[in-house]
Amino acid sequence: MWGRVRRAVAHDRGECAVRVIIDLTRCQGYGQCAFLAPDVFAMNGEEALLYDTDPDEAQREHVLRAAAACPVQAIHLDRMATQHRGMRTGTAVPPPVGDGFRKTGRIVIVGASLAGARAAGVLRRDGFTGSLTLIGDEPYEPYDRPPLSKQVLVGRVPADHTLLPRLREVDAEWLPGVAAAGLDLAAKTVRLADGREVGFDRLLIATGARARPWFNPEEAALDGVLPLRTIEESSRLRERLAARPRRVLVIGAGFTGSEVASVCRDLDLPVTVVERGPAPLVGALGGVIGKVAADMQRAHGVDLRCGVRVEALEGDADGRLRAARLSDGDTVEADVAVVALGAIRNVEWLRDSGLAAGVWGVACDAGCRAVDINGLVTDDVFVAGDVARFPHPVYNFQFMTLEHWGNAVAQAEIAAHNMLSDQAHRWPHLSLPVFWSNQFGTGIKSVGVPTFADEVVIAHGSTEERRFVAVYGYRGRITAAVTFDRAMWLEFYQGLIERAAPFPPDFRAADRPETLRPVPAEIPERLEATQVTVMVTGHDPAERRATLVHGDR
């Protein structure tokens, strides 16, 4: 049982051991934690916070004082109760779907990472006493991924110190190290890779995503070519960086690639970043803020190459990486290459299951209920986390997938609540997307969807100083805000987005420029999924069905 596994771990580490996690979207850089527990928390710059996720027993009292003193209550500890953002006090127990299901129902969660673990805790917290099974393809307890590209790589904490805190002891059957291989909706069973079958009454799909590999398998197998998403990958990369390579090559300048480049400079390692787009972070924040990110990288000594691609990775006779050949004809010598090309959603096991699952994830409604290939909403299969593709009313009901820590937590809580509620008492997932990134001593935070915008304006501060608030607008209303070391504004703009406030913002502030000049946000053209085709069969309304036609058929 998962709860028994957790108790054994606690005993090995000491009964007073405590795990720490910080909701960095709420953190505003006050630094009280770094003052009260300096061996656990540290400010890297003005608002970029680093912390030990698994401090030793001697730090327990310091950590508890730091959590109590946090002005925005962003520090979460082991067994700390959680509440949905929409709740002011306490926790609400959803109306029962029937005592029989609550007591004897079977819930299976496929995916034992952040979303799966949070959903399991919420289910037990809200009174589900039936059978609960978690299936995970990794052998570890659920762990936190953001520290893997930050604290772990810089050597502040080992990778195995990133296990997630618990809401409470979760009495669940945990099946680690085994992947789901198929789903039979009619029989209500999940087939595992080892041949076992697990039955369910309600299912939560939280299989997340994996790192996109280098396109050439032979080159990907070279010693020194590494992705970064799991504990093992983070540990291997940390070992390589500690060995002081002559140069690190980072392929891709999204958030993961940019954070790796930041760590390399913190360690005084030469690093080259190759990005096929015009600037770092353009895919997430647009070209205007991408230029600021590019200037920041170069100011910290990064050899940034934009508008070019890595055509090939070259190794020596012993299979060790030695260089990369670029599309502009140049060659970069390096013995470590970090492949940071985004993620692939883990949906292969759902092929032929009857669910609307494809390269963009598993489609679901705003209540996290999965959609089948006919466009019908299921009532016993739910989706949460990075693998969920859901419509958001604030953004014209467009379907979106979000690889954000905050979204995984909020969506997992919504899914768990709705699994235990009847139709009249289910909640919609209306939380605005939030994310953070610590790079080069700067805390970058966002609320809303920056890519759903046509204009952007610098509403506070200065891009030259890299301390500012960028506000995004779409057809005259505010849709997102991005802050560089100005996190205190984030909650304010969240409220404006939720109220559909007009763009550009019109109010007085001490650090506001005299004149607001909106400019095009330079958002890249949105990609459309083209890998999946739907074929409709049958003539009678009772027989007409949709079928997915896969490209390999």
From TrEMBL:
<keyword id="KW-0285">Flavoprotein</keyword>
<feature type="domain" description="FAD/NAD(P)-binding">
    <location>
        <begin position="106"/>
        <end position="412"/>
    </location>
</feature>
<dbReference type="InterPro" id="IPR023753">
    <property type="entry name" value="FAD/NAD-binding_dom"/>
</dbReference>
<dbReference type="InterPro" id="IPR050446">
    <property type="entry name" value="FAD-oxidoreductase/Apoptosis"/>
</dbReference>
<dbReference type="InterPro" id="IPR036188">
    <property type="entry name" value="FAD/NAD-bd_sf"/>
</dbReference>
<keyword id="KW-0560">Oxidoreductase</keyword>
<feature type="domain" description="Reductase C-terminal">
    <location>
        <begin position="435"/>
        <end position="517"/>
    </location>
</feature>
<dbReference type="InterPro" id="IPR016156">
    <property type="entry name" value="FAD/NAD-linked_Rdtase_dimer_sf"/>
</dbReference>
<dbReference type="InterPro" id="IPR028202">
    <property type="entry name" value="Reductase_C"/>
</dbReference>
<dbReference type="Pfam" id="PF14759">
    <property type="entry name" value="Reductase_C"/>
</dbReference>
<dbReference type="Pfam" id="PF07992">
    <property type="entry name" value="Pyr_redox_2"/>
</dbReference>
<protein>
    <recommendedName>
        <fullName>Ferredoxin reductase</fullName>
    </recommendedName>
</protein>
<keyword id="KW-0274">FAD</keyword>
<dbReference type="Pfam" id="PF13370">
    <property type="entry name" value="Fer4_13"/>
</dbReference>
